[in-house]
């Protein structure tokens, strides 16, 4: 029973893959030249859209064979294209844009930032990599010793890889929120700690979580002030991160958790961020978040006795759910809901005796919905 507030109402590792980079082209539609009717024999040839196709230089979408340099792409330079990084050594690489897919091959001792990737990020045959990555799919193969601050919409996969360490994505630059939207990624769907090891070794652990206090700047520094990226205003403070900092799969500090759900509205994202600020300021911890669409039957299964009043609200769009943890968190969240979100449709766990069930019901449903 909860309370709610509203206005009154794979291929085998031994196989070699074709790593030839590909690029896509962008068509621009043009109007064909108008030709008057009659017997004019000097007609200009018709022009078609493919004659005016924008030229794409593959080199603009590759970083190859570099050593001891700071390189990358500024906002607006990729605009959703594919990108390839290969055979780089001791480089600082920054991709401050959204892209379709990114492959990173045969790189050693590099620090890498990758802006939102609509599809997959695939590291192959890399070693000693420290990176910050946001993507739909994350995969490594034949990699050694990587430290990754990750935002991944699906379950991250490692294969034939060892010494892998993961932390929660923490980064900000002014265009980043727009790049997440352009890449079709939700800042609330982050499975950074839910790693699947495709090739586990009995008695060994190929991956672990970074210490909770790990700071991005200790792994991936900001660009040199003299570099081409000096104009990008970057912050790695957890409080400013576009992606909320979550505890993920680490052990919870308290046995009391609370489910807090925002139903779709004009300020849903801003309200969820406000809740996180309010709750963390009171000492509570954000465990996990999800943004997912629901059907009427889902509402009845997840919210049970509170479902009737909530069904109409799911037609307006996806819901955003948060699990907050700490002694006294349920009562605190109910107070926050009534004081700050009194004009907003929300669901909050009603008491600490049933709140764990609320959390399990929702996030089990969300994981199934997202194929996790």
Folded structure, characterized:
This protein is of the alpha/beta class and 372 residues long. It contains five helices and 17 strands. It has helices spanning 176-182, 268-281, 296-303, 329-340, 355-369, and strands at 2-5, 62-64, 70-73, 83-86, 92-95, 102-105, 108-124, 127-141, 144-152, 157-159, 162-168, 196-197, 207-209, 257-262, 285-292, 319-325, 346-349. Helix 3 runs antiparallel to helix 5 (355-369). It is globular.
Task: Report the sheet with the most strands, covering strand number, pairing sense and barrel closure.
Answer: 12 strands, parallel
Looking at the structure, the CATH topology of the largest domain is Pectate Lyase C-like
Secondary-structure-based class equals: alpha/beta
- Tell me the number of helical segments per DSSP (H or I, 4 or more residues long): 5
Average the pLDDT over all residues and give the rounded result.
Answer: 88
Low-confidence stretches: 6-17, 20-39
Number of domains: 2
Radius of gyration computed on alpha carbons: 24 Å
Tell me the span between the first and last alpha carbons: 26 Å
Q: Helix coverage percent of residues? A: 10-25%
Shape: globular
CATH architecture descriptor text of the largest domain: 3 Solenoid
| SSE pattern | EEEEEEEEEEEHEEEHEHEHEH
Beta-strand content estimate: 25-35%
Compute the number of strand runs.
Answer: 17
- The CATH C-level name of the largest domain is Mainly Beta
Key attributes of the depicted protein:
5 helices; single chain; Tubulin-bd_cofactor_C_dom; 372 residues; alpha/beta; 17 strands; 12-stranded parallel sheet; 5-stranded antiparallel sheet; 28% strand; Pectate Lyase C-like; Alpha-Beta Plaits
């Amino acid at each position: 029973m909860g309370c709610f507030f509203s206005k009154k109402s794979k291929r085998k590792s031994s196989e070699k893959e074709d790593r030839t980079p590909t690029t896509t082209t962008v068509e621009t539609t043009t109007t064909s030249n108008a030709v008057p009717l009659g017997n004019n024999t000097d007609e200009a040839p018709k022009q078609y859209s493919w004659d005016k196709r924008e030229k794409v230089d593959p080199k603009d979408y590759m970083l190859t064979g570099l050593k001891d340099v700071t390189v990358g792409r500024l906002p607006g330079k990729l605009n959703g294209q594919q990108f390839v990084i290969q055979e780089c050594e001791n480089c600082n690489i920054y991709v401050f844009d959204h892209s379709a897919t990114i492959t990173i091959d045969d790189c050693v001792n590099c620090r890498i930032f990758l802006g939102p990737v609509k599809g997959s990020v695939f590291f192959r045959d890399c070693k000693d990599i420290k990176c910050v990555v946001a993507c739909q799919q994350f995969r490594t193969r034949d990699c050694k010793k990587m430290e990754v601050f990750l935002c991944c919409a699906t379950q991250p996969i490692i294969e034939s890889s060892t010494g892998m360490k993961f932390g929660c994505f923490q980064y900000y630059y002014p265009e980043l929120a727009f790049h997440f939207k352009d890449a079709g990624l939700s800042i609330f769907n982050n499975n950074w700690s839910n790693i699947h090891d495709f090739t586990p070794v009995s008695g060994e652990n190929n991956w672990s979580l970074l210490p909770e206090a790990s700071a991005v700047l200790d792994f991936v520094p900001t660009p040199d002030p003299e570099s081409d990226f000096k104009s990008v205003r970057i912050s790695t403070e957890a409080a400013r991160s576009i992606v909320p900092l979550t505890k993920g799969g680490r052990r919870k500090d308290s046995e009391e958790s609370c489910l807090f759900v925002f139903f779709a509205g004009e300020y849903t994202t801003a309200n969820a961020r406000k809740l996180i600020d309010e709750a963390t300021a009171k000492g509570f911890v954000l465990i996990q978040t999800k943004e997912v669409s629901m059907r009427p039957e889902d509402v009845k299964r997840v919210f049970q006795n509170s479902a009737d009043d909530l069904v109409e609200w799911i037609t307006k769009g996806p819901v955003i759910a948060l699990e907050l943890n700490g002694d006294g968190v349920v009562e605190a969240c109910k107070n926050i809901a009534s004081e700050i979100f009194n004009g907003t449709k929300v669901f909050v766990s009603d008491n600490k005796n049933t709140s764990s069930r609320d959390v399990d019901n929702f996030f089990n449903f969300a994981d199934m919905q997202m194929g996790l």
